[in-house]
Write a structure and sequence with these properties.
The protein has 2 domains: 306 residues, Tachylectin-2, Chain A; 218 residues, Jelly Rolls (Sandwich). The chain is 2% helix and 41% strand. It contains 2 helices and 38 strands. It has a 7-stranded antiparallel β-sheet with strand order 26-27-38-29-34-35-36, with no helix packed on it. A 6-stranded antiparallel β-sheet has the order 28-37-30-31-32-33, with no helix packed on it. The protein has a 5-stranded antiparallel β-sheet with strand order 1-4-5-6-7, with no helix packed on it. Strand 8 and strand 9 form a beta hairpin. The longest helix has 9 residues. It starts with a strand and ends with a strand. The relative contact order is 0.14.
């Protein structure tokens, strides 16, 4: 079986809705829209094995980590598993930033094994499996560094690239570094190697990752991995700073690869300034070659919004989001801000078949014990509704159950059924942590950020409470309007709704504040307020908590629906 490694690291703030293929007539040309993976799918790698494509993303502080997805046509994807299910890094509660950065996935032709490389705590680790969906075995640390890239040469020799520009030879099983680096090319983010037309090509993304920085994709080539390396005379090959006013900006972490049908593509990340909540999303560009052997995006340096679809059989996989909780295994869309508890002590899908039963833990949505009961999944759309049916009899303290949007324990909002001073209520509230400084966060060193932001206490605000006249079984809906603003509803049957007088804008606060625009409160975007907890974008889900109640109680969720508009 022929395999092609196509490593990428990408982030793109995307177009509305899921990626689609459009066909206006039976003989019309099929097209796709960027991003091909909407929502926060940052720093991933891609590998083709025969006619199948697999991608892995950086998961930072989420667990299980190293989310893996599968596609047959490069446009439609579905979740299939995780490479890290054992929380292979140490993390403090509430911190998303330090976890897993810049992952990559490869296929070892020597022993027909899938390999996932990921940096954790400054060391690159390796995970291996005979199956792309796992389970994966944690092979431990290989070397210090970040943003690993994997490359298998024609003769089966394996290599690892790192953000400093070093290229390491790997042992034949891909599980260890074989000696010192063989060469150092160019430093930056997302280094990747591929081979074509008798050359080795090396791709790197310097220039800073955040909006208003200068992220770009650079290319080099050489006849020999040890050099000398030739810089592409047209570098940067892709470049779209904010001054271009492009819809998709900051292309980076790119990788060029060839499909089984001979077409060439570039995968990369980009973002939209208008939707920080979607994080860095995956895009795809068709590639052509110059007469003198350099690759070029067909549409030029600025990310395109639509293109002719790859010449691959269309298989309409879908990134799972809605869940009826009608199987004994948790859907692959779900993860936690904690090591996942599969013991049954925190939650169960079997105690009451057809329901997700969450067992309340002490604290509220910001508390460490509740993190094992806080179900999360990526937000992938701009305009959509989230609807959930929950059965919960709130009687003590401020125990609660419902749906939420989340960035970290200090930035979230919720719609719950709860009890306040003995009265059953529906509640809308949020946690926020405002950057209280006149200093531009971009100029601060890490220790200064700690003083100006991380030492500031979070603030909890209740926007609305209305009497629960329905009972213990209720439907909740959060409706997002396409402009990162949420509205809140409840009902008895999931068809007829009563709106609560509350509204939350959860978009950017950092740049909006500096530009005199309305800041998000809370800001659930990937840029990070005051450069705190950067990189992860908005997630959403269900939760339940004791919050002062004497005993744990069951909250039973019958469904979680995501309806796109």
């Amino acid at each position: 079986m022929k395999t092609v490694k196509i490593g990428i690291i990408f982030s793109a703030l995307a177009l509305a809705g899921l990626t689609s293929i459009a066909v206006s007539a039976p003989e019309a040309t099929k097209t796709y829209t960027n991003p091909i993976i909407p929502g926060d799918w940052s720093d991933p790698g891609i590998v083709r094995v025969g006619e199948d494509y697999y991608t892995v993303r950086s998961s930072f502080g989420w667990q299980p980590g190293l989310h893996i997805a599968h596609s047959k046509d490069l446009i439609h994807w579905k979740y299939i598993g995780f490479a890290d299910t054992k929380n292979a890094f140490d993390r403090k509660h509430g911190i998303t930033e330090p976890g897993i950065w810049g992952s990559d996935i490869g296929y070892n032709p020597n022993n027909k094994t899938y390999l996932v490389y990921a940096p954790m705590g400054g060391h690159i680790r390796v995970f291996s499996s005979k199956h792309p969906a796992g389970p994966y075995k944690d092979g431990g640390k290989l070397t210090r560094g970040y943003d690993p890239g994997f490359f298998a040469d024609d003769d089966g020799t394996l290599y690892l690239t790192k953000s400093g520009g070093e290229v390491h030879k790997l042992t034949p099983d891909g599980l260890r570094v074989d000696g010192d680096p063989i060469v150092k090319v160019a430093g930056g983010e997302g280094p990747e190697l591929f081979k074509a037309n008798g050359y080795y090509y090396y791709i790197i993304s310097p220039g800073g990752t955040r909006p208003y920085q200068d992220h770009m994709i650079m290319s080099y080539r050489s006849k020999n991995l040890k050099g000398p390396w030739e810089k592409d005379p047209k570098n940067p090959v892709m470049h779209a700073p904010h001054t271009t006013n492009a819809k998709l900006q900051g292309p980076g972490h790119g990788e060029v690869f060839q499909t089984q049908n001979g077409e060439w593509f570039l995968s990369y990340h980009a973002y939209e300034l208008s939707h920080y909540s979607l994080g860095r999303q995956t895009c795809l560009e068709p590639v052509t070659w110059t007469d003198d052997g350099w690759w070029r995006p067909v549409n030029g340096k600025i990310p395109s919004e639509s293109n002719k679809a790859p010449d691959l059989k269309q298989v309409e996989f879908k990134m799972q989001d809605s869940d009826e909780f009608d199987t004994k295994d948790l859907g692959k869309q779900w993860f936690f801000h904690s090591e996942s508890d599969v013991s049954g002590r925190s939650w169960s899908l079997t105690e009451r078949p057809g329901f997700l039963r969450i067992k309340t833990a002490e604290g509220d949505i910001s508390s460490l014990p509740v993190s094992k009961n806080l179900f999360l999944q990526r937000v992938m759309d701009k305009k959509f509704d989230v609807i959930s049916e929950v059965e919960f009899d709130a009687k003590e303290g401020n125990e609660a159950a419902g749906i939420h949007f989340y960035h970290d324990p200090e930035k979230s909002f919720w719609l719950t059924t709860t009890v306040v001073e003995g009265k059953k209520m529906f509640e809308v509230g949020f946690y926020d942590k405002v950057f209280k400084s006149d200093v531009d966060p971009a100029t601060l060193k890490p220790h200064q950020i700690n003083k100006t932001y991380r030492s500031t206490p979070k603030e909890k605000k209740i926007l609305a409470r209305v009497p629960n006249t329905i009972g213990k079984k209720v439907f909740f809906k959060i409706s997002v309007d396409g402009q990162e603003t949420a509205h809140f509803f409840y009902g008895a049957d999931g068809k007829n709704w009563t709106e609560i007088d509350a509204e939350i804008y959860f978009g950017d606060s950092w740049h909006c504040s500096r530009l005199g625009k309305k800041p998000g409160s809370p800001d659930l975007g990937w840029v990070g307020t005051g450069r705190d907890n950067v990189w992860t974008a908005t997630v959403m889900g269900v939760f339940a908590c004791k919050n002062g109640a004497a005993k744990s109680k069951n909250a039973d969720f019958q469904s979680f629906q995501v309806i796109k508009h």
